[in-house]
Amino acid sequence: MAKYRKNLPQLEGTTFLSDGGMETTFIFHDGIDLPEFASFVLMATPEGRQRLKDYYISYLKIARENGAGFILDTPTWRANPDWGAKLGYDAEGLRAINRDSVDLLLELRKEFETAATPCVISGAIGPRGDGYKAGNMNANEAETYHAAQIESFAQTEADMVAAYTLTNYNEAIGVARAAKNHAMPSVISFTLETDGKLVTGLSLGDAINRVDDATGGSPAYYMINCAHPSHFVDALEKGEAWLDRVRGVKANASTKSHAELDDSVTLDAGDPVDLGRWYNGLTRSFPKMRILGGCCGTDHRHVAAICEACSTQTAQSA
Predict the structure, then answer these.
(1) pLDDT tens, position by position, 115-130
(2) 3-state SS, one letter per residue, for the chain
(3) Residues 275, 298: contact at Cβ < 8 Å?
(4) 262, pLDDT greater than 90
(5) 10 Å Cβ neighbour count for 278?
(6) How do residues 57-104 score in pLDDT, each as one tens digit?
(7) pLDDT for position 314
(8) What is the β-pairing status of strands 221-225 and 246-251?
Protein backbone atom coordinates (compact mmCIF):
# COMPACT_ATOMS: atom_id res chain seq x y z
CA MET A 1 0.00 0.00 0.00
CA ALA A 2 1.32 3.46 -0.91
CA LYS A 3 2.30 5.40 2.20
CA TYR A 4 1.49 8.96 1.15
CA ARG A 5 -0.78 8.63 -1.90
CA LYS A 6 -3.80 9.90 0.02
CA ASN A 7 -1.94 12.63 1.92
CA LEU A 8 1.15 14.15 0.29
CA PRO A 9 3.24 15.68 3.10
CA GLN A 10 4.90 18.26 0.81
CA LEU A 11 1.56 20.06 0.57
CA GLU A 12 1.83 21.06 4.23
CA GLY A 13 4.30 23.82 3.38
CA THR A 14 7.53 22.50 4.89
CA THR A 15 10.71 22.35 2.83
CA PHE A 16 11.24 19.30 0.63
CA LEU A 17 14.34 18.71 -1.43
CA SER A 18 14.70 16.69 -4.60
CA ASP A 19 17.65 15.61 -6.68
CA GLY A 20 19.45 17.55 -9.39
CA GLY A 21 20.34 16.78 -12.98
CA MET A 22 20.53 13.00 -12.90
CA GLU A 23 21.44 12.49 -16.53
CA THR A 24 24.01 15.28 -16.72
CA THR A 25 25.60 14.03 -13.49
CA PHE A 26 26.00 10.49 -14.79
CA ILE A 27 27.26 11.57 -18.21
CA PHE A 28 29.57 14.46 -17.40
CA HIS A 29 30.71 13.72 -13.84
CA ASP A 30 30.68 9.92 -13.77
CA GLY A 31 31.51 9.24 -17.41
CA ILE A 32 28.60 6.85 -17.86
CA ASP A 33 27.13 6.35 -21.31
CA LEU A 34 23.38 6.95 -21.21
CA PRO A 35 21.92 6.11 -24.62
CA GLU A 36 19.10 8.49 -25.55
CA PHE A 37 19.77 10.35 -22.27
CA ALA A 38 17.96 7.54 -20.42
CA SER A 39 18.97 6.81 -16.83
CA PHE A 40 16.57 3.90 -16.52
CA VAL A 41 18.98 1.69 -18.48
CA LEU A 42 21.11 1.55 -15.32
CA MET A 43 18.39 -0.61 -13.75
CA ALA A 44 19.49 -3.47 -16.03
CA THR A 45 22.56 -4.44 -14.00
CA PRO A 46 23.50 -4.72 -10.31
CA GLU A 47 26.30 -2.23 -10.91
CA GLY A 48 23.91 0.24 -12.49
CA ARG A 49 21.41 -0.07 -9.65
CA GLN A 50 24.19 0.61 -7.16
CA ARG A 51 25.18 3.70 -9.14
CA LEU A 52 21.61 4.92 -8.86
CA LYS A 53 21.51 4.20 -5.12
CA ASP A 54 24.76 6.10 -4.55
CA TYR A 55 23.36 9.02 -6.54
CA TYR A 56 20.19 9.24 -4.45
CA ILE A 57 22.08 8.76 -1.17
CA SER A 58 24.18 11.86 -1.81
CA TYR A 59 20.95 13.89 -1.74
CA LEU A 60 19.17 11.96 1.01
CA LYS A 61 22.04 12.71 3.36
CA ILE A 62 21.61 16.44 2.72
CA ALA A 63 17.88 16.23 3.44
CA ARG A 64 18.32 14.22 6.62
CA GLU A 65 21.12 16.43 7.94
CA ASN A 66 18.91 19.50 7.44
CA GLY A 67 15.61 18.05 8.62
CA ALA A 68 14.00 18.48 5.21
CA GLY A 69 11.67 16.12 3.42
CA PHE A 70 12.70 14.51 0.16
CA ILE A 71 11.02 13.66 -3.14
CA LEU A 72 12.46 10.42 -4.51
CA ASP A 73 11.83 10.51 -8.27
CA THR A 74 12.30 7.25 -10.14
CA PRO A 75 14.93 7.25 -12.96
CA THR A 76 12.16 6.71 -15.52
CA TRP A 77 11.92 10.06 -17.28
CA ARG A 78 12.58 8.29 -20.62
CA ALA A 79 10.66 5.07 -19.83
CA ASN A 80 7.78 5.71 -22.21
CA PRO A 81 6.87 3.84 -25.43
CA ASP A 82 8.71 5.99 -27.99
CA TRP A 83 11.99 6.34 -26.12
CA GLY A 84 11.78 2.79 -24.78
CA ALA A 85 11.43 1.39 -28.30
CA LYS A 86 14.62 3.17 -29.35
CA LEU A 87 16.40 1.33 -26.55
CA GLY A 88 14.89 -2.09 -27.26
CA TYR A 89 12.20 -2.11 -24.53
CA ASP A 90 8.69 -3.32 -25.25
CA ALA A 91 5.62 -2.59 -23.12
CA GLU A 92 6.33 -5.41 -20.66
CA GLY A 93 9.97 -4.38 -20.35
CA LEU A 94 8.95 -0.82 -19.52
CA ARG A 95 6.42 -2.01 -16.94
CA ALA A 96 9.16 -4.01 -15.26
CA ILE A 97 11.51 -1.01 -15.25
CA ASN A 98 8.88 1.24 -13.70
CA ARG A 99 7.99 -1.34 -11.07
CA ASP A 100 11.60 -2.17 -10.21
CA SER A 101 12.53 1.52 -9.97
CA VAL A 102 9.89 2.02 -7.28
CA ASP A 103 11.21 -1.03 -5.41
CA LEU A 104 14.71 0.49 -5.48
CA LEU A 105 13.42 3.70 -3.92
CA LEU A 106 11.44 1.81 -1.29
CA GLU A 107 14.72 0.32 -0.12
CA LEU A 108 16.22 3.79 0.20
CA ARG A 109 13.17 5.15 2.02
CA LYS A 110 13.37 2.36 4.55
CA GLU A 111 16.98 3.29 5.26
CA PHE A 112 16.79 7.09 5.28
CA GLU A 113 13.29 8.21 6.24
CA THR A 114 12.81 9.83 9.65
CA ALA A 115 9.96 11.78 11.21
CA ALA A 116 11.71 15.00 10.16
CA THR A 117 12.59 13.67 6.69
CA PRO A 118 9.55 12.05 5.09
CA CYS A 119 10.46 10.52 1.72
CA VAL A 120 7.80 10.64 -0.98
CA ILE A 121 8.19 8.19 -3.85
CA SER A 122 7.34 9.75 -7.20
CA GLY A 123 7.03 8.00 -10.53
CA ALA A 124 8.86 10.27 -12.95
CA ILE A 125 7.37 10.80 -16.40
CA GLY A 126 8.92 12.67 -19.30
CA PRO A 127 7.49 14.10 -22.50
CA ARG A 128 6.83 11.91 -25.49
CA GLY A 129 9.31 13.97 -27.46
CA ASP A 130 12.14 16.38 -26.66
CA GLY A 131 11.99 18.37 -23.44
CA TYR A 132 13.28 21.42 -25.31
CA LYS A 133 10.86 21.32 -28.26
CA ALA A 134 7.10 21.69 -28.58
CA GLY A 135 5.15 18.46 -28.91
CA ASN A 136 2.14 18.12 -31.19
CA MET A 137 -0.18 15.67 -29.38
CA ASN A 138 -3.65 16.73 -28.41
CA ALA A 139 -4.90 16.06 -24.89
CA ASN A 140 -6.74 12.84 -25.77
CA GLU A 141 -3.69 11.39 -27.52
CA ALA A 142 -1.50 12.36 -24.58
CA GLU A 143 -3.88 10.74 -22.10
CA THR A 144 -3.78 7.47 -24.02
CA TYR A 145 -0.02 7.64 -24.55
CA HIS A 146 0.97 8.20 -20.92
CA ALA A 147 -1.69 5.94 -19.37
CA ALA A 148 0.44 2.79 -19.52
CA GLN A 149 3.34 4.26 -17.54
CA ILE A 150 1.00 5.85 -15.01
CA GLU A 151 -0.89 2.57 -14.60
CA SER A 152 2.38 0.77 -13.93
CA PHE A 153 3.15 3.21 -11.10
CA ALA A 154 -0.39 2.97 -9.74
CA GLN A 155 0.15 -0.76 -9.24
CA THR A 156 3.19 -0.14 -7.02
CA GLU A 157 3.75 1.69 -3.74
CA ALA A 158 4.56 4.94 -5.55
CA ASP A 159 2.88 7.89 -3.84
CA MET A 160 2.44 10.08 -6.92
CA VAL A 161 3.52 10.68 -10.50
CA ALA A 162 5.41 13.75 -11.71
CA ALA A 163 5.72 14.81 -15.34
CA TYR A 164 8.88 16.82 -15.94
CA THR A 165 10.07 19.00 -18.85
CA LEU A 166 6.66 19.26 -20.46
CA THR A 167 6.58 21.89 -23.18
CA ASN A 168 2.87 22.23 -23.95
CA TYR A 169 -0.34 22.27 -21.99
CA ASN A 170 -2.11 19.60 -24.07
CA GLU A 171 0.35 16.92 -23.02
CA ALA A 172 0.03 18.12 -19.43
CA ILE A 173 -3.76 17.78 -19.63
CA GLY A 174 -3.38 14.22 -20.89
CA VAL A 175 -1.00 13.28 -18.08
CA ALA A 176 -3.26 14.81 -15.42
CA ARG A 177 -6.35 13.03 -16.78
CA ALA A 178 -4.59 9.67 -16.98
CA ALA A 179 -3.31 10.08 -13.41
CA LYS A 180 -6.77 10.94 -12.16
CA ASN A 181 -8.20 7.88 -13.89
CA HIS A 182 -5.76 5.74 -11.91
CA ALA A 183 -6.30 7.61 -8.61
CA MET A 184 -2.72 8.90 -8.60
CA PRO A 185 -1.81 12.40 -7.43
CA SER A 186 -0.02 14.17 -10.28
CA VAL A 187 2.49 16.98 -10.54
CA ILE A 188 3.09 18.94 -13.74
CA SER A 189 6.43 20.63 -14.30
CA PHE A 190 6.89 22.88 -17.32
CA THR A 191 10.12 23.67 -19.15
CA LEU A 192 10.51 27.43 -19.60
CA GLU A 193 12.60 29.44 -22.05
CA THR A 194 14.79 32.47 -21.40
CA ASP A 195 11.71 34.72 -21.68
CA GLY A 196 9.92 32.82 -18.91
CA LYS A 197 7.41 31.29 -21.34
CA LEU A 198 6.86 27.82 -22.75
CA VAL A 199 8.56 27.13 -26.07
CA THR A 200 5.17 27.60 -27.75
CA GLY A 201 5.11 31.21 -26.53
CA LEU A 202 2.36 30.55 -23.99
CA SER A 203 2.84 32.11 -20.58
CA LEU A 204 3.24 29.87 -17.55
CA GLY A 205 0.10 31.30 -15.98
CA ASP A 206 -1.97 30.58 -19.10
CA ALA A 207 -0.59 27.04 -19.30
CA ILE A 208 -1.48 26.30 -15.68
CA ASN A 209 -4.93 27.82 -16.02
CA ARG A 210 -5.66 25.81 -19.16
CA VAL A 211 -4.64 22.56 -17.51
CA ASP A 212 -6.66 23.31 -14.39
CA ASP A 213 -9.70 24.32 -16.43
CA ALA A 214 -9.54 21.13 -18.50
CA THR A 215 -8.97 18.77 -15.56
CA GLY A 216 -10.96 20.32 -12.74
CA GLY A 217 -7.71 21.31 -11.06
CA SER A 218 -6.68 17.68 -10.65
CA PRO A 219 -2.86 18.16 -10.46
CA ALA A 220 -1.71 18.32 -6.85
CA TYR A 221 0.57 21.21 -7.81
CA TYR A 222 2.85 22.55 -10.53
CA MET A 223 6.59 23.09 -10.79
CA ILE A 224 9.07 24.97 -12.97
CA ASN A 225 12.12 23.21 -14.35
CA CYS A 226 14.96 23.25 -16.85
CA ALA A 227 15.53 27.03 -16.81
CA HIS A 228 17.71 29.32 -14.72
CA PRO A 229 15.74 31.45 -12.23
CA SER A 230 16.90 34.60 -14.01
CA HIS A 231 14.91 33.40 -17.04
CA PHE A 232 11.54 33.23 -15.31
CA VAL A 233 11.57 35.34 -12.15
CA ASP A 234 10.15 38.36 -13.99
CA ALA A 235 7.25 36.24 -15.24
CA LEU A 236 6.10 35.56 -11.67
CA GLU A 237 3.86 38.42 -10.64
CA LYS A 238 2.72 38.50 -7.04
CA GLY A 239 -1.00 38.39 -6.45
CA GLU A 240 -1.91 36.22 -9.43
CA ALA A 241 -4.03 33.26 -8.32
CA TRP A 242 -2.22 30.68 -10.47
CA LEU A 243 1.02 31.28 -8.58
CA ASP A 244 -0.46 29.53 -5.55
CA ARG A 245 -0.41 26.37 -7.66
CA VAL A 246 3.38 26.53 -8.19
CA ARG A 247 4.94 24.67 -5.29
CA GLY A 248 8.42 23.83 -6.53
CA VAL A 249 11.41 24.62 -8.72
CA LYS A 250 14.04 22.42 -10.35
CA ALA A 251 16.18 25.01 -12.12
CA ASN A 252 19.19 24.74 -14.37
CA ALA A 253 22.57 25.82 -13.03
CA SER A 254 23.44 27.48 -16.32
CA THR A 255 22.06 30.77 -17.61
CA LYS A 256 22.48 29.54 -21.21
CA SER A 257 19.51 29.04 -23.50
CA HIS A 258 18.36 25.55 -24.41
CA ALA A 259 19.81 25.98 -27.90
CA GLU A 260 23.19 26.87 -26.41
CA LEU A 261 23.04 23.91 -24.03
CA ASP A 262 22.14 21.56 -26.88
CA ASP A 263 25.21 22.71 -28.83
CA SER A 264 27.58 22.47 -25.84
CA VAL A 265 29.99 19.54 -25.54
CA THR A 266 30.96 20.43 -21.97
CA LEU A 267 28.87 20.83 -18.85
CA ASP A 268 28.05 24.31 -17.60
CA ALA A 269 27.57 23.72 -13.87
CA GLY A 270 27.13 27.40 -13.06
CA ASP A 271 27.75 28.59 -9.51
CA PRO A 272 26.04 26.58 -6.72
CA VAL A 273 26.22 29.44 -4.21
CA ASP A 274 24.76 31.93 -6.67
CA LEU A 275 21.99 29.49 -7.55
CA GLY A 276 21.24 29.22 -3.84
CA ARG A 277 20.84 33.00 -3.68
CA TRP A 278 18.32 32.88 -6.51
CA TYR A 279 16.32 30.21 -4.68
CA ASN A 280 16.45 32.29 -1.52
CA GLY A 281 14.86 35.15 -3.43
CA LEU A 282 12.22 32.91 -4.95
CA THR A 283 11.16 31.34 -1.66
CA ARG A 284 11.22 34.72 0.05
CA SER A 285 8.91 36.23 -2.57
CA PHE A 286 6.78 33.11 -3.05
CA PRO A 287 6.64 31.19 0.25
CA LYS A 288 4.65 28.29 -1.22
CA MET A 289 7.62 27.31 -3.39
CA ARG A 290 9.11 24.89 -0.88
CA ILE A 291 9.96 21.88 -3.10
CA LEU A 292 13.51 22.60 -4.17
CA GLY A 293 15.82 20.72 -6.49
CA GLY A 294 17.81 21.07 -9.67
CA CYS A 295 17.75 20.21 -13.35
CA CYS A 296 20.42 20.18 -16.07
CA GLY A 297 23.95 20.76 -14.79
CA THR A 298 23.09 20.59 -11.10
CA ASP A 299 24.29 17.98 -8.62
CA HIS A 300 24.30 17.46 -4.86
CA ARG A 301 26.51 20.54 -4.37
CA HIS A 302 23.84 22.79 -5.85
CA VAL A 303 21.06 21.24 -3.78
CA ALA A 304 23.17 21.60 -0.63
CA ALA A 305 23.75 25.29 -1.44
CA ILE A 306 20.04 25.79 -2.15
CA CYS A 307 19.13 24.13 1.13
CA GLU A 308 21.61 26.24 3.07
CA ALA A 309 20.45 29.49 1.46
CA CYS A 310 16.79 28.79 2.07
CA SER A 311 17.34 27.40 5.58
CA THR A 312 19.17 30.60 6.47
CA GLN A 313 16.19 32.59 5.26
CA THR A 314 13.79 30.47 7.31
CA ALA A 315 15.91 30.90 10.45
CA GLN A 316 16.10 34.67 9.99
CA SER A 317 12.34 35.00 9.53
CA ALA A 318 11.47 32.77 12.52
Answers:
(1) 999 999 999 999 998 7
(2) CCCCCCCCHHHHCCCEECCCCHHHHHHHHCCCCCHHHCHHHHHHCHHHHHHHHHHHHHHHHHHHHCCCEEEEECCCCCCCHHHHHHCCCCHHHHHHHHHHHHHHHHHHHHHHCCCCCCEEEEEEECCCCCCCCCCCCCHHHHHHHHHHHHHHHHCCCCCEEEEEEECCHHHHHHHHHHHHHCCCCEEEEEECCCCCECCCCCEHHHHHHHHHHHHCCCCCEEEEECCCHHHHHHHCCCCCHHHHHEEEEEECCCCCCHHHHHHCCCCCCCCHHHHHHHHHHHHHHCCCCCEEEECCCCCHHHHHHHHHHHHHHHHHHC
(3) yes
(4) no
(5) 19
(6) 999 999 999 999 999 999 999 999 999 999 999 999 999 999 999 999
(7) 47
(8) parallel
Look up residue 40 and give its amino acid.
Answer: F
pTM: 0.95
